[in-house]
Amino acid sequence: MTEQKVRWGILATGGIAAAFTADLVDLPDAEVVAVASRTEASAKAFAERFGIERAYGDWGALAEDADIDVVYVATPHAAHRATAGLCLEAGRNVLCEKAFTLNAREAEELVALARERGSFLMEAMWMYCNPLIRRLKALVDDGAIGEVRHVQADFGLAGPFPPSHRLRDPAQGGGALLDLGVYPVSFTQLLLGEPSDVAARATLSEEGVDLQTGALLSWDGGALASVHCSIIGGTATSASVTGSLGRIDVPSGFFFPERFVLHRDGREPEEFTAEASPRNSLKHEAVEVMRALRAGETESPLVPLDGTLAVMRTMDAIRDRVGVRYPGELAREAVTPA
């Protein structure tokens, strides 16, 4: 794969699939050639909306389509292990939405499968590909605020969501953490890596998913992080990084920021702004996938698989502390020898 267009397949037809496809069709070196849904009617409607040639009424047909260079998996995260695995087994490269899977075990299985097959696999953590987030990370890595002491990040929606909503459904991996908390956790680990210890508390629903969760993460070097997510209260969706020599503040919408402010001791604050609309941030991850494919890479240095696994381990630890288990996990545990 060199200069020809990268041919994409879209697996699922929900809101995030539509947003990603809308950005994808604007890229001159990308071509969306097929879409699949659990129903042919949904796939055809999506295909007509975006001018896609082929529409499949089952996931397997898309996975077996040899004209596809890479599949974007946008099902609810409870189905990621099955759908991404199906595509990898068929020899397709995969960009898989976050949360990457329900748990670290499933994530490890997908990563092992991709590495065994020599296929490209990446979590769709579009925040990591955002130019302004990359600039923030570079400043932190270069010591602009000294040694990182504390990271804060939050993401909450006001709701309310009825029990039938996917965010409240245990069978779909519902709850605030996997859907929203993945952003604060990923932001924190982008800067500090995997924590050495995790403490957490949550408010649980009658269905057993977390309505809101707060976690305190700590590292052996002394750094701390405070993360919060909620589906019962709208938060500022802000972030801050405090170091020994200064601080970086990211206002509302930290995962696709319009700007951030660098405060350094003894200096005037410096504001860094996005060159283009942050609402187009999904394009950045598509560009990175296509760059990696053309370079013959099986994973992205911006969203490395080991980093994805580390985030999944942290979210497993948080769920363990607050007592959230999903039906598939309970069934697996019941048949696993002690």
Lay out the secondary structure.
Elements: E1 6-11, H1 15-24, E2 30-36, H2 40-50, E3 54-56, H3 59-63, E4 70-73, H4 80-89, E5 93-96, H5 104-117, E6 121-123, H6 126-129, H7 131-141, E7 148-156, H8 176-192, E8 197-204, E9 210-218, E10 224-230, E11 239-243, E12 246-250, E13 259-264, E14 270-273, H9 281-294, H10 305-322, H11 327-335
Parallel strand pairs: 1-2, 1-4, 2-3, 4-5, 5-6, 7-10
Antiparallel strand pairs: 7-11, 8-9, 9-10, 11-12, 12-13, 13-14
Helix pairs in contact: 4-5, 5-10, 8-10
In total, the number of strands is 14
Mean pLDDT: 94
Major sheet size, sense and barrel closure: 8 strands, mixed
The secondary structure category is alpha/beta
Count of DSSP-assigned helices:
11
Rg for CA atoms: 20 Å
User: Oligomerization state of this entry?
Assistant: single chain
Strand order of the largest sheet: 8-9-10-7-11-12-13-14
Give the distance, in angstroms, between the N- and C-terminal Cα atoms.
47 Å
Describe this structure in words.
- The structure is a single chain.
- This protein has 338 residues and is of the alpha/beta class.
- It is built from 11 helices and 14 strands.
- Strands 8-9-10-7-11-12-13-14 form an 8-stranded mixed beta sheet, covered by helices on one side.
- Helix 4 links the parallel strand 4 (70-73) and strand 5 (93-96).
- Helix 4 runs parallel beside helix 5 (104-117), helix 5 (104-117) runs antiparallel to helix 10 (305-322) and helix 8 packs across helix 10.
- The longest helix is centred in the C-terminal third of the chain and has 18 residues, at 305-322.
- It starts with 5 loop residues before the first strand and ends with a helix.
